[in-house]
Amino acid sequence: MMQHLKKTSGASFSTDFTKALDKNGDGKITFKEYLVAYYRTATAKEIEMMLDWVKPEAVAEPVKEALTAEQVEEFTAIFNLYDKNRDGKLDLEEVKDAIKGCGFETDEAEDMIEEHDADKNGTFNFDEFTAMISE
C-alpha cells in the first residue's frame, strides 16, 4: 500500500511540477522557464542576461590574417602557373590541371569551384583562389 502511494504521489508531483514550470504548455521545461520559476523576482532583462551567460557565442567567421608580401608573391606565381590562357581567371579545366598536379581527383574541381567561387561565375579570380588556398 505504501509503495503504491509513493508511486502515485511521485507521478502526481512530477506532473504538477511540469505543469507549474511549463508556461507555454509544450510538455517541455526550457531553461528560460526554469530560470523564471527559480528566480521569481528577476526582471525579464535579468533573465535574458542569465540566458546570455550560458548561450554559446555566435560562431564568428575566423579572422583572416593579411597575407605577407612573400605569400602574395608565392600565390601569384602559383595562380599564373595554372592560368594557361592568361585571362586572370582559372576555369574548370585549369583547376582540374592544378588539382591533378596536387594529387586530388579531377572530379573534385567542380566542387572546389562551387564552394569557393564567391561571384558564382564558374571560375576563380585571384582573390577567390588565394582565399581558398589560404584556408
Structural overview:
- With 135 residues, the chain is mostly helical.
- The protein has two domains: 2-54, no CATH class; 69-133, Orthogonal Bundle (Recoverin, domain 1), CATH 1.10.238.
- It is built from seven helices and no strands.
- The chain has helices at residues 2-21, 31-38, 44-54, 69-82, 92-101, 108-116, 126-133.
- α2 (31-38) crosses α3.
- The protein is elongated, with a radius of gyration of 29 Å.
Short overview:
The chain is mainly alpha-helical. The protein is built from 7 helices and no strands.
Which structural class matches the secondary elements? mainly alpha
- End-to-end CA span: 68 Å
Stretches where pLDDT falls below 50 for ≥5 residues?
none
- Broad CATH class of the largest domain: Mainly Alpha
Major β-sheet, in short? Answer: none
**What string, H for helix and E for strand, traces the elements in order?**
HHHHHHH
* Shape designation: elongated
Q: Which architecture name of the largest domain does CATH use?
A: Orthogonal Bundle
| Number of helices, where a helix is a run of at least 4 consecutive DSSP H or I residues | 7
Keywords:
single chain, 135 residues, mainly alpha, Recoverin, domain 1, 2 domains, 7 helices, 0% strand
List the helices and strands and how they pair.
Blueprint: H1 2-21, H2 31-38, H3 44-54, H4 69-82, H5 92-101, H6 108-116, H7 126-133
Helix pairs in contact: 2-3, 4-7, 5-6
Organism: Tetraselmis chuii
InterPro entries: CALM/Myosin/TropC-like, EF-hand-dom_pair, EF_Hand_1_Ca_BS, EF_hand_dom
GO molecular function, one term: calcium ion binding
